[in-house]
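Example 3.2
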Amino acid sequence: MSGTTRPGAATTSPGYRPAGLDDAFSDGGQGAPPPAPATGGQLPALGPVGWLRWAWRQLTSMRVALLLLVLLAVAAVPGTMFPQRPQDPAGVAAYLTDHPSTGPWLDRLGFFDVYASVWFSAIYLLLFVSLIGCILPRTRVHLAAVRGRPPRTPRRLARFPAQGAGTSPDAPQVVVERAAAVLRRRRLGVPAFRADVHDEGGGTWSVSAERGYLRETGNLVFHLALLGLLVAMAAGQMLHYRGQAIVVQGTGFANVQAAYDTFERGTAFDPADLVPFTMRLDDFEARFDPATLQSRDFTAYVTVAEPGGEPQERTIKVNHPIVAGGAKVYLQGNGYAPAVTVHDAAGEVAFSGPVPFLPQDDVYTSRGVVKVPDVSGDQPQVGLVGYLLPTAVEPAPGLWRSVDPQPADPLLVLSVWSGNLGLDTGVPQNAYRLDESRMEQAVDDAGEVVTLYVRPGETVELPDGLGTLTFDDLPRFVALDLRHDPSLAWVLTFALLALAGLTVSLFAPRRRLWLRAAPAQDDGPGPATTVITAAGLARGDDIGLQPELDRVLADVLGTPGPSHHTTGSAGPQEDTT
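Structure, written as tokens:
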């Protein structure tokens, strides 16, 4: 008959949920949303405040944060495709020259300084704001949940996926308090469960326990660490500097911007803040495999003098930098720097000193340029272009090559140019290239190019009466890379925190256990018996839930295992959508 039920049948409503489920553990604390009333009219306009609130909610949603993170990675791609002005101004100038139509537009759009462009900074800041707006409300809700208490024991424990039962001769209150002590046992110094004991009346007692808030804590730590990474990386880009310098054996280097061959810095770093230390290259050792000629070890012996301190002898190796003036000093490269002296036609010394030649292969065939601008009178300037062969052999007439990187028989092979070096035009020049646009190459009477072959200690005449060249010595040089970034320690710290938080959020289980102890309802003779029923609930699938419930019951009952348990899907499963 309509509107009647069988005696003893349970009546439920469509929105019914067992006690202990309607909270943050199952549906974020919101419960089932009430049905929207049928208005039948037109929806009200949002207005400016409503649109701002909608935009804020969209910006602080997780999907928008992920979208911005992907967009930031995509926006960084042009920085690897186009030369960047802070690192390679010459490359940018060459690109603008080679692409006169598209180059200026790319320059206006910031493609040659991507990481300081407006659009990249906008994405970065939006991601920053999105993470803050997403994390702060979650942190507030999480702290409130941590300060809360476990939910009370539901009336019907048989509806849950993990179940157990047993009996005990002890009183219900004693059983429940023993269960609470078992649940509160410490693991790694932290209580395993938060437990509350309840007197349900009629001699029935229960305990409710909860664990797993560490999962959400790890999730929040991960996101906070990600936010810290963004801040640290931004600070590093603003406060860092990096420079490269070539130091010849027997000479020194001072940590001032003018001493660097290349120098880049963050927008907030002042070159006046460079720590004024000095470094002298005392010696350099290079070891090669005698059979394969592969490099085995490079060692630079330097003397470092920092302000207010005594000079100290230090050693720099590949991948083993030293710290000087707050900067890490890396050994980036090495080679030979032939020391030459050039006398002009009047016999005056026009140039004297070492000139670094850059290695071109494994046997250190090195290319270099000697520029001689300071000549006497109206004599044309001189440029010498050629190669240094550390161990020279002549396999064919007029054909020379190096067969070993060690300087067993060094030889300079040079061609001679004369004219205007172009050093006074105000246009920056590459120190390792000769501008031949205003120069003429020396040739002999037959029209053949004049080539000079000079060994250490020898002096040769320059063609066309330009003077003489003396090969004095063959010292080594090292290429040093100095980097200062105060954010590196913070980046490492936040990266480790992010990894730890992600690990905890993935592997920390979220569980609730309930245990009820009630007097037996039989009237038989003998001592009173306490009937124990227990149940467990986890967030999502958790194969460890039933075993944990079994262990708790075994400890409470003092038996090797629970007297009874069932596992199935008859009970309600948690909504994980």
